[in-house]
Amino acid sequence: MTLLLIEQILNGLQYGMMLFLMAAGLTLVFGVMGLINLAHGSLYMLGAFVCAAVAGFTGSFWLGLVASLIASAAAGAVIEVAVIRRLYARDHLDQVLATFALILVFSEGCRWVFGSSPLFLTVPAVLSGAVTFPGGLQYPLFRLVIIFVGLAVAGGLFWLIGGTRLGVRIRAGEADRGMIAALGVDISRLYTIVFALGAALAGIAGALVGTLQSVQVGMGEPVLILAFVVIVIGGIGSIKGALIGALLVGMTDTMGRFLLPMGFAQIMDPAAARGVGSALASILIYLLMAVVLVVRPQGLFGART
Amino acid sequence: MKIVKTLFPSLALSLALAGGAIAEPVKVGLITTLSGGGATLGIDTRDGFLLGLKQAGATDVEVIVEDDQQKPDVAVQLADKMIQSDQVDVLTGIVWSNLAMAVVPAAVGQGKFYLSTNAAPSQLAGAGCNPLYFSVSYQNDNLHEAAGAFATDTGYNKVFIMAPNYPAGKDSLAGFKRYFKGDVVDEVYTQVGQTDYAGEIAQIRASGADAVFFFLPGGMGISFMKQYADSGVDLPLVGPAFSFDQNILQAAGKAALGVHNTSNWSKDIDNEANKTFVAEYKAEYGRLPSIYASYGYDTAHLLLSAMKTADVKDKEAFRAALAKADFASVRGKFSFGPNQHPIQDIYVREVVEEDGILTNRIVSTALADRADAYAAECKM
Amino acid sequence: MNITRETVVNSAVLALLVLVPVVAQLRGDPFTITLATKVAIFALAGVGLNLALGFGGLISFGHAAFFGIGGYVTGILASHAANYEPLFDGAFTVNGTQQMLLIWPIAIVVAGLFAVVIGALSLRTSGVFFIMLTLAFSQMIYYFAVSWPSYGGEDGLSFYTRNQFPELNMFDPLNYFWVCFTLLILAVGLSAMITRSRFGLALGGARQNPQRMASIGIRPFWLSLTIFVISAMMTALAGSLYADLNRFVSPAMLNWHMSGEIMVFVILGGNRRLLGPVAGAGLYILAEHLLGQFSDYWQFFLGLVLLAVVLFAPGGVIGILTRRRGDV
């Protein structure tokens, strides 16, 4: 039981990191440009498809990973210039709709190019299998790598925002758009760079998570909604909020699915308890989000509404 | 809307000359999923059905194909359209149980035949059976029952079972338990569309089970198998054919190798009809057929066999002709029970690698001449 | 009333919506009538959402919840009545019903109650948080419907025969179209009244400048909550009609894609235009059918069309036709 509990806690942590990879780009784009990007999930899907296709063609997972990074960043830059740029001045409604339209274009476009069947993508040999900890706990190496990558991305983003020239501009852009343009910074180039960066983060997340999951059309949508839940809980625009929010959601979801059916079995017939428990578990994170927002409308680390 | 007409006047003539054939034109409405994430299954169903007609040189069959987008409300509206505007005689093609439950009762209620190429929920096999409704594929529980029988025969004593938390998932676990004689150590319902199974795998690891039964169709199964293979847990897996079908097996990769799964069709079933089907399907579409394609193909042949002896407008005669199942099924032995669901053998297959492609090979028969658990409740 | 260009366009839109099913009836093409009915129903859902979205400035990404609740109330009442099972059997007995005139008010009230709770909680926030909170509540209801077994779960709930309306045969597609169309017209009339009333003017003020409204003693919260609830009720009525059109309800009605689609009807036609949702729903259904004919990948082209409208025609189709941006 203790081993199981530790493993579930690791799972919650790992799931949270997976969500963070997705949420980081989303919250960055929102924080800097004030843009709601529903197509973030499509960039995630694109990353997974490109990684699978390139890895399948060349036989190298690593080449696939690099390709997915380049492809998603490039796709991000292209849609920023072609579409997103026209949306900054619009209200959230137009942003939601335009990016909803982009989802349709990307999903069916992907199916057109790559076919309807799921693609194959697997863990590279060096990272496959499970490691055994002292005490007998076994845990898949690749999931540990995802936890590590998540931490590295979080560290990288903190450094980028806090310690580089680009970060200074990003923060300035968040604070006052007019001022930064007046200071002679090319704001539209900055926006393209930030959007491409967000897209690259989505692409990498897609490639890594796609390695563990089914690479198929529509894979970005459930995770997109979860990523929104994460950044809303954490406070939109805050990297720290996204990190804490992701861990909270990951932990709540994993533990809910694990503990609720067991809990209900104490008070009712086990077969019914499993149904009720997992029904409740599936709405738990939305409940968490509602509670957080009702108590703290700007999210845990949100500065403005 | 895409209309595919298959009219071969010369063949019609020769059939008429051969005598006994009443070449009445039959209009078929094929509603299936052709767009979105579930499109592969629908495309295979359609291709199998059309190949069946083409290969038999079918005369006077007009097929209207429409995309249901995997949405039940769209399927209902398409069925209304085909019945009211196109005035089809026969409906077929739906892949998903929830769409079938939305369409089938309404269609047979309006006096149309429905031939199921896949979904066959228990409600339509028992008290809700109907003279105009035939399931050509199976009854939904069949493959799960066979998995239960296989687990018992193999000597598994403690099995961990898992399915998504929706009606088909619950039927699946009930079906498995119907034929499994050992202990079920834990029973887990996952979320519909779930993509991460780390939590369930942890529970499997801790459960002390000696085997795992899972029903996770489509992408859910791929995700689970990839994660399971990488988890260090190495209990044997058993499942119904859906997660091991030809069109998703390549995506699961070596993670699926050696897994046992239950199916009523396999490309290595040894009979002439099946050999022809597999060869012609490969020649026509450049890929190996899936179970959905095989059901579509059999449905086409069943329809043609009934058309040979009866007029579709004469419902009673046509129903009797269908019920005879006088066609060479790619599954070999095939007949209908009293509730018009198949009586057939259900096999255990193993995932193997052939020429660098993952595919299935039959290893044994799990249930012979299996009908279904609901036939007795059907009063027709 | 002045005869503006928009009045002409609006009349044309309504005339077209009436003309299509009538001609279809004469040509013996019942499916086209079904499509027109679907347009009227989706338009009604859009008119409801337009009240919150356009006039109230509340971007609800969760109206599928109300659409689905309307549908489920209808399905549950009808299936209980059909099976002669009471809904509630205790100290007193509550039976199901197949009378539309009873079902509609119940669906509207139930959805209204949900809207009061969801609205009151969501309105504590604004902007993107409001969008996401409404989405979260609708997702909760969606997952609940998928996994709760009593009314079919993911499979949905069929009730086989359309519910009844006094003196009219509802199985006749054209009759059912008239019922839906009449309700649509009533809803459009009601929204026109609301937006022109003192309440509507205050609401417009609250949308454009909440501080000023607060300073003259009008609390935007109550205005917003009221319009949100009315909006939800209209969408629920549309959900009830949609359930009857298909004689079937399923969690798909509650899915976030549905919320997105209702939003698309509003924007495609023209945000804040009285008949925007009617034109939008009509075009959407038409595009779905035309594009579906020429490609399996029709959603790709649908996406491009939507994108073009949002980017280059912010007033929607009615905006293009009247050549000015909508402002009330």
UniProtKB/TrEMBL annotation, chain A:
Its Gene Ontology cellular component terms are: plasma membrane
This protein's membrane topology, according to the annotation, is:
Multi-pass membrane protein
Coiled-coil ranges per the record? none
User: GO MF terms on file?
Assistant: transmembrane transporter activity
Provide this UniProt record's keywords sorted from A to Z.
Amino-acid transport, Cell membrane, Membrane, Transmembrane, Transmembrane helix, Transport
- A biological process term (GO) from this entry: amino acid transport
Pfam families the UniProt entry points to: BPD_transp_2
User: What InterPro entries does the record tag this protein with?
Assistant: ABC_transp_permease, BCAA_transport_permease
Q: Which residues cross the membrane?
A: 12-36, 43-63, 69-88, 100-121, 141-161, 190-212, 224-250, 271-295
Where found, per UniProt? Cell membrane
Which CDD domains does this entry report, sorted A to Z? TM_PBP1_LivH_like
Family the entry assigns: Belongs to the binding-protein-dependent transport system permease family. LivHM subfamily.
What is the protein name stated in its UniProt record?
A: Branched-chain amino acid ABC transporter permease
Instruction: Output the lineage of the source organism.
Output: Bacteria, Pseudomonadati, Pseudomonadota, Alphaproteobacteria, Rhodobacterales
Automatic annotation (TrEMBL), chain B:
Q: Which UniProt keywords apply?
A: Amino-acid transport, Signal, Transport
Tell me the leader sequence span.
1-23
The biological processes this protein is annotated with in GO are: amino acid transport
Listed InterPro entries: BCAA_transport, Leu-bd, Peripla_BP_I
Q: Where is the Leucine-binding protein domain?
A: 25-352
The reply to whether Signal figures as a keyword in the UniProt entry is: yes
Statement: the UniProt record of this protein carries the keyword Transport? yes
Xref: SUPFAM superfamilies: Periplasmic binding protein-like I
* Similarity-based family: Belongs to the leucine-binding protein family.
Q: Name it.
A: ABC transporter substrate-binding protein
Which organism's genome codes for this protein? Pseudooceanicola spongiae
Taxon lineage: Bacteria, Pseudomonadati, Pseudomonadota, Alphaproteobacteria, Rhodobacterales
UniProtKB/TrEMBL annotation, chain C:
Its annotated compartments are: Cell membrane
Residue ranges spanning the membrane: these are 40-59, 64-82, 102-121, 128-145, 176-195, 216-242, 297-321
Keyword line: Cell membrane, Membrane, Transmembrane, Transmembrane helix
The GO cellular component terms are: plasma membrane
Give the bilayer topology: Multi-pass membrane protein
Q: What GO molecular function terms would the record report?
A: branched-chain amino acid transmembrane transporter activity
Q: Which CDD domains match?
A: TM_PBP1_LivM_like
Q: Which InterPro entries match?
A: ABC_transp_permease, LivM-like
The identity of this protein, by name, is Branched-chain amino acid ABC transporter permease
Organism of this sequence: Pseudooceanicola spongiae
Q: What is the lineage of its organism?
A: Bacteria, Pseudomonadati, Pseudomonadota, Alphaproteobacteria, Rhodobacterales
